[in-house]
Write a structure and sequence with these properties.
209 residues; mainly alpha
Length: 209
């Protein structure tokens, strides 16, 4: 197993997730914000260290995004639990469901493309990157608003915008996945036709011989 400092930071980020969930469920105010900020710092550091010190590993290519998704999905799930802190700012359940459903959809699309077509590269689109950024920003605003209640009015419009982008991103992933599948099918069909033409030429040459 390839192990490095960036991978260790990703594991630390995963370890922060249960602490974050506990802090939210217990109704703490500033502690979840600090934990989320520390997790974000580990994310920034592991990328910088991996690039500047050439510590990119195959394990890290999977570990880093897995840690990011675990943190983000856990944040939406924990902050959407109703009734934990009636006075605190929370994420509407329907927004959390849409965010989590999008990630499940992405996993399903990628898995289908891999199992059916052998595709292993599924690069995130621009709208996907923007959506992820908005999802993170919405969590940060909600966490800050739990500390500074006067900022609470900023959370609702940001969450609504995040939900809209999440839907658009999910639809885009399905569209891109369909195009990738169609392109691979066309390539396979073209290779099959080339193989048939080659076999026809060989049979023709055998007859002439």
């Amino acid at each position: 197993m390839s192990f490095s400092v960036p991978n260790l930071l990703s594991i630390i980020r995963m370890g922060i997730v249960p602490l974050f969930i506990i802090a939210v469920i217990q109704g703490y105010t500033w502690q979840p914000l600090v934990l989320f900020a520390v997790a974000g710092l580990t994310d920034a550091l592991d990328g910088l260290i991996a690039r500047f010190y050439h510590q990119q590993t195959r394990l890290g290519a999977y570990l880093d995004p897995a840690a990011d998704k675990l943190l983000l999905v856990s944040a939406y799930a924990a902050l959407a639990v109703p009734g934990l802190s009636p006075e605190a700012v929370t994420i509407p359940v329907w927004v959390a469901v849409m965010v989590i459903a999008r990630d499940v959809l992405i996993v399903i699309v990628v898995l289908i493309l891999y199992l059916a077509l052998g595709l292993t590269r599924f690069r995130p689109t621009m709208i996907s990157k923007v959506t992820t950024g908005m999802q993170i920003a919405a969590v940060v605003v909600v966490l800050i608003a739990r500390v500074f209640s006067e900022l609470a009015p900023l959370a609702e419009p940001l969450l609504i915008a995040t939900a809209g982008l999440t839907v658009a991103s999910g639809v885009n992933y399905v569209y891109v996945g369909n195009r990738m599948a169609a392109a691979r099918a066309a390539e396979d069909r073209e290779r099959g036709e080339d193989r048939e033409r080659g076999e026809d030429r060989e049979r023709g040459e055998d007859r002439e011989g």
